[in-house]
């Protein structure tokens, strides 16, 4: 199966069903680390796996266990990408080093997709789902009225991370102009309904013991080096600044 066909189908599952998305960050002593987004859409496979296979053709009835890089995918779609604006191409460039691993089994009712990358400094990370939304727009041919053309992670914000050994921050700054335009989008209510039962979970792992976290809902690991925070996915999509928080570490 062509990479783009596979990825488009996986995005469709993730976009059209309630699923759990988990954002993982692992930071080592020297500041390098690993970032990943895990999407679990197994609930849809449990409810409608057979019907999806019928709709999507014989290729997608087969079990999938696939690993590829976005660099491979971009080579496949290079002509379409060349027609995008410089800003959109820059967004996609952020995904170039991401690896996509997918596991789909209709019989076992499993659908898992992980997007992961290594980083040299957490400050270089951006919102992977925002960049994915640019890729999804290729599928809609830039038509803003196409269903979910805004993309799975298009929450009209700019996300940044900082870490200096003493403090870690996760901060999303909302673009109010984009937010106002989205409020007029007729598909917004449909998206809200679909994502109402989805969750966005943050799991961050640090090389130092945590002194305190600005979010009172944070759960600590036994060694106080990891935190887990769960949000409704509607918060990520509609109020991304609710996911902002700071972590301070013990000396």
TrEMBL record:
Record bears the keyword Signal: yes
Keywords linked to the UniProt accession: Signal
Signal peptide range: 1-20
PROSITE patterns per UniProt: PROKAR_LIPOPROTEIN
UniProt entry tagged with the keyword Signal: yes
Name the record gives this protein: Lipoprotein
Organism annotation: Flavobacterium hibernum
Upper taxonomic lineage: Bacteria, Pseudomonadati, Bacteroidota, Flavobacteriia, Flavobacteriales
């Amino acid at each position: 199966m062509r990479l783009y066909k596979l990825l488009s189908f996986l995005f469709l599952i993730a976009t059209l069903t309630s699923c759990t998305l988990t954002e993982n960050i692992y930071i080592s002593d020297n500041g390098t680390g690993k970032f990943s987004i895990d999407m679990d859409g197994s609930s849809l496979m449990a409810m409608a796996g057979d019907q999806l296979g019928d709709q999507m053709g014989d290729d997608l009835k087969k079990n999938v266990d696939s690993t590829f890089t976005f660099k491979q995918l971009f080579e496949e779609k290079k002509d379409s990408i060349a027609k995008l604006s410089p800003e959109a191409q820059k967004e996609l460039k952020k995904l170039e080093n991401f690896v996509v691993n997918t596991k789909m089994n209709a019989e076992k009712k499993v659908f898992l997709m992980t997007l992961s990358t290594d980083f040299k400094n957490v400050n270089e990370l951006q919102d992977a789902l925002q960049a994915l939304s640019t890729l999804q727009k290729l599928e809609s041919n830039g038509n803003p009225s196409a269903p979910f053309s805004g993309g799975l992670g298009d929450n009209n914000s700019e996300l940044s991370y900082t870490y200096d050994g003493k403090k870690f921050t996760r901060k999303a700054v909302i673009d109010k102009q984009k937010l106002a335009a989205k409020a007029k989008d007729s598909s917004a209510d449909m998206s809200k309904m679909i994502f109402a039962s989805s969750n966005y979970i943050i799991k961050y792992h640090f090389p130092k013991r945590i002194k305190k976290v600005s979010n009172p809902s944070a759960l600590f690991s036994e060694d106080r080096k990891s935190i887990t925070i769960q949000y409704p996915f509607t918060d990520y999509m509609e109020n991304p600044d609710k996911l902002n928080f700071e972590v301070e570490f013990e000396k």
